[in-house]
Amino acid sequence: MYIKELIKHLGEEKFSQNETILYRHGHDESPHPPVEPDIVCFPENREDVLLIVAVATKFQIPITPFGAGSGLEGQAIPINKGIVISFERMNKLIEFSPENLTITVQPGMTRLGLNKLINREGLFFPLDPGADASIGGMVATNASGTTAVRYGSMREQVLDLEIILMDGTIIHTGTHAKKSSSGYHLNGIFVGSEGTLGIITEITIRLHGIPEHTISARCTFSTPQLCVEAAQLILTTGIPVLRMELVDSVSIKRVNEYGEYEFPVADSIFLEFGGFQVAVEEEIALAKELLSDIGCLSWTIAKDSKERAELWKARHEVSHSFRHIKGMEALGSDVCVPISKLAELVKYTRAQVEESGLLAGILGHMGDGNFHSIIVFNPDNLKEKEAAIRINESLVYKAIELDGTCTGEHGVGLGKKKFQNAEHGTSVKIFKDLKRLFDPDNLLNPGKLFI
Fold first, then answer.
1. Could you tell me if residue 407 is inside a domain?
2. What is the 8-class DSSP label of residue 34?
3. Cα 217 to Cα 230, 283, 310, distances in angstroms
4. pTM of the model
5. pLDDT tens digit string along 274-307?
6. Based on the domain organization, do 319 and 279 belong to the same domain?
7. What Rg do the C-alpha atoms of the chain give, in angstroms?
8. Domain of 107: which CATH number?
9. 155: containing domain
10. What is the DSSP string of 353-421?
């Protein structure tokens, strides 16, 4: 009955029950089992979304928002079936204000599409999670990536959101001003809420000037712990790096084989510096001197933009290189701890992996204490699968013990909800109270964030 009403209000061109479309919108990039929705809707504006919400509320049908499908924790899987709202057609520019360093877009616009619009004005959107994620999806998971050491996460970029609540109310969570001391911080509540509180229809974000000069470098150390110490030294010295990534020797070996690179197989830091040319050259010279003093084994600067692009292409391919081993599956972590605890956690992780005998890489964003382990196992070998799950869980609990979090950027979704009580304790009750306030019938992306 509800499907007939959706078709009546939206029109046949804005929905699909095609088997291929249902399958595509029943999974993301996570290892969680796919669940196909009953119908996929393709709204083009807020009015279409309002119609979908009205029908869903009337018939008590769950709604799952869907962006680019690049999530890694199952946020976009419609585990209760129902309606998937695909935002691929809501990808338009609403307002671009280069003089204010702001832009307002629909949630389906991707980060590469956004940068294509604004780069010609000397501006860019700096967050880089690797995939060409949708801006709405990045807001929903509070995404970040390799540039978070300089620019922070998505929460620091969002100025205002237009949200449709399940009762049909349209709200704005902020303004276009760069700061405010007025009222509750609704941006902070909705960014990272994974589509469980309201449906995003417009996003206003801050933009940044493209650095005049950029230099990338790669250096190696004898242990991952020394890489972490090097990162701490750079940060405490005040050198304003754009990126600072740990890639351990196992990951270097694997990505060399996958992408036919020729990087030295050693625990490595990939670095990027950006700003005015004179300042950047001084910063990179100081960084080289500091790191040499603590045992840097090699230091290589990318000679040109091609080498720089290759360096970061390799960094982004590390995860793929483990996840695309024939006949194997990979389980990835996404923990974040205070930077002073990062070396301890990296050492703990490597010990756990070596004891198991499984193949695993360690990489991550050292500048903000966020790192990933990627554990490879044979899905047909129950012992290996259980070992991978056990290592991943022990790593998460160790991160929480070190006053960290179970996820630094991938979000909670299905995979991390079992850790919420351990991390947040009695605050989980507040999460549930907020959910009931905004979504009393539990129709928005049910089954995500907490148990």
1. no
2. P
3. 14, 12, 12
4. 0.95
5. 999 999 999 999 999 999 999 999 999 998 899 9
6. yes
7. 22
8. 3.30.465.10
9. 1-209+412-451
10. HHHHT-EEEEEEEGGGTEEEEEEEE-TT-HHHHHHHHHHHHHHHHHHHHTT-BS-SSS--TTTSGGGHH
